[in-house]
Design a protein that fits this description.
The chain is of the alpha/beta class. The chain has 17 helices and 20 strands. The chain has two domains: 308 residues, FAD/NAD(P)-binding domain (3-Layer(bba) Sandwich); 105 residues, FAD/NAD(P)-binding domain (3-Layer(bba) Sandwich), CATH 3.50.50. The structure holds 3-acetylpyridine adenine dinucleotide (N01).
Length: 552
């Protein structure tokens, strides 16, 4: 009720110090940070409420696989002490409740305009302001333009012939209806075995009459080992707030997992290695990938982890032919690994059929179901767990244009050579900032940690500009080139670039390939960004308000 009242009091002229797109983890904190610093700020959100991807991504079994106690904001100790997570991995519903709680606690809704999609954002060189337009044609102006659109909000629905003719119902996991989808008595087909498929398949199988899983590439999955939190664990966690905050901020990927063995997997004898993998497997979570220090660097070490998982698939899945089909052959974790609850066990159910669409691809969707090049499957419901146009996709949904009317899409069309400075800014796009943009740790980190770092860096930057009478900040082309080169070099030293995945755009037909994530480490990246700021925003051109002269 309070929130509705706040919303109705908010009609203001459409000119702001800052406009932020998106009311998920990024937009909510950005709004709070800027408002606290006295900047007039408005958030625009296409959905009817806060939550970002957690508003829409509500498929059966949807949970985050970052552990709850670190999948939250750390900027406010009061908030951290007030909120209590129920289990080791947060369920979609609980994350959404958390973000709603945050919005209420900090009275954020009064500065968020919901049900409003921003279609265009153009930089006006005459006035040094951003001009934005909504879907209904409303115009907005702002000095600073900040995107908080997430990395995975632009869904990928492959262009199968005949989808329009399908007489049943179909859904994409990322845009799931708010009402319960009834699977009871239904023949269901799930296309895709990435994180969304692997999480939803065991849950749908329990309800459906029959489930067909259409798998093109099997995923590597290790046990989540989810469980309700023990009150004593919660007490200790809250008591350790400062230490948890420090550790995640200084870590490699924003998690608390310690490297189990600071040595190569190849240094251990096979039986020792087996025991070490078994230990991290039994604990559950992403710690499995931290069993040795070179799993993402050395192909032979990687193979030892991959083989361990394959052996677990053989132990679990009774039908050896199905087990073989479920075994991935690419480098473990070079494509996003998954945490599951009963995923491989699900293939022992009589009502589940695994269909290999690598050897016999999907040819078309028919009125009655789905046809591969080998057979037809009658279905009542199709679930597309087919992923997203990651990293750049959400940004490209907005027509963003900088100097000389050049669009972000045109600027990046050249591929990975011309990207970003620090994953935060772009040459040619003054006073624009991207929260968790391409070439920042973003999707390869625990996102709330990376989001907080970007929000705080941007907030500090805008305060600096105001204090120093600076009108525009813009990345220098040479700084951008050096950053993109550094990103590529770090990525090239790992196995990430040796495997097709959404990380490098391989999942979207026609998308230019390029590794879009900084993998040099969350803690290291933070230091680089802080040094840039400490040196008076090194690598940026700052233009002063009074004299219009270049300050640096
Ligand atoms: O998508 P994906 P996702 N015919 O791209 C298949 C985050 N996330 O939504 O590998 C047949 O991983 C495709 O096959 P292939 C997380 O970062 C997190 O599952 O291209 N199949 C693949 O199997 C994650 O990485 C959480 O051969 C087709 C699947 O669809 C990211 O979101 C939960 C096909 C897509 O897998 C995306 O995950 C959920 C076609 N034409 C998501 N096209 C948690 O934290 C695609 N596929 C738990």
């Amino acid at each position: 009720m309070a929130s509705t009242q706040q919303k109705s009091q908010t009609i203001q002229p459409n000119d702001f110090d800052a406009v932020v797109i998106g009311a998920g983890f990024s937009g909510l904190y950005m709004l709070h940070r800027l408002r606290e610093a006295g900047f007039s700020t408005r958030v625009y959100e296409a959905a009817p409420d806060v939550g970002g991807i957690w508003f829409a991504n509500r498929y059966p079994g949807a949970r985050c696989d970052s552990e709850s106690i670190i999948y939250n904001y750390m900027f406010s100790e009061e908030l951290y002490q007030e909120w209590t997570w129920s289990s080791r991995y947060p369920e979609q519903k609980e994350i959404l409740s958390y973000l709603q709680y945050v919005a209420d606690k900090f009275e954020l809704r009064r500065d968020i305009q919901f049900n409003t999609r921003i279609m265009a954002a153009h930089y006006d060189e005459q006035t040094n302001r951003w001009k934005l337009q909504t879907e209904d044609g409303t115009r907005i102006t702002a000095k600073y333009f900040i995107t908080g659109v997430g990395n995975l909000s632009s869904s990928n629905i492959p262009k199968f012939t005949g989808l329009d003719s399908f007489e049943g119902a179909w859904y994409h996991t990322g845009h799931w209806p708010h009402e319960k989808v009834e699977f009871k008595g239904k023949r269901v087909g799930v296309i895709g075995t990435g994180s969304s498929g692997i999480q939803s398949i065991p849950v749908i199988a329990e309800e459906a009459d029959h489930l067909f899983v259409f798998q093109r590439t099997p995923g590597y999955s290790t046990p989540a080992k989810n469980h309700p939190y023990d009150p004593e664990f919660i007490r200790q966690t809250k008591a350790n707030y400062s230490e948890i905050k420090r550790q995640t901020r200084e870590s490699t990927a924003g998690y608390l997992h310690k490297l189990m063995n600071d040595r190569s997997a190849l240094e251990d004898d096979p039986d020792v290695r087996q025991r070490e993998y078994q230990k991290t497997w039994d604990r559950g979570g992403f710690g499995f990938g931290r069993t040795y220090n070179d799993l993402l660097l050395n192909p032979s070490s990687n193979e030892t982890a991959a083989e361990f998982i394959r052996s677990k698939i053989s132990e679990t899945v009774r039908d050896p032919k199905v087990a073989e089909l479920l075994k991935p052959t690419y480098y473990y974790a070079a494509k996003r690994p998954v945490l599951d609850t009963n995923y491989y066990e699900t293939y022992n159910r009589e009502n589940v059929t695994l269909v290999d669409v690598k050897s016999a691809p999907i040819a078309e969707i028919t009125p009655r179901g789905l046809k591969t090049t080998e057979a037809e499957y009658e279905l009542d419901i199709i679930v597309f767990a087919t992923g997203y146009d990651g990293m750049t996709g959400p940004l490209f949904k907005i027509d963003i244009r900088g100097r000389d009317g050049i669009s972000l899409k045109e600027k990046w069309a050249g591929g990975p050579e011309t990207r970003t400075y620090l994953g935060l800014t772009n040459a040619g796009f003054p006073n624009m900032f991207m929260i968790t943009g391409p070439e920042s740790p973003s999707a390869l980190s625990n996102l709330p940690v990376s989001i907080e770092q970007h929000v705080e860096w941007i907030g500090d930057c805008l305060e600096y500009l105001r204090e120093h009478g600076i009108e525009t900040i813009e990345a220098k082309a040479e700084a951008e080139e050096a950053w993109s080169k550094h990103c590529r070099e770090v990525a090239e030293s790992t196995l990430f670039t040796k495997t097709d995945s959404w990380y490098n755009g391989a999942n979207i037909e026609g998308k230019p390939r390029g590794f879009l994530i900084y993998v040099g480490g969350v803690g290291h990246y933070r230091k680089i960004c802080d040094e840039v700021a400490a040196k008076g925003y090194e690598g940026f051109t700052l233009l002063s308000l009074s004299s219009r002269e270049t300050i640096s």
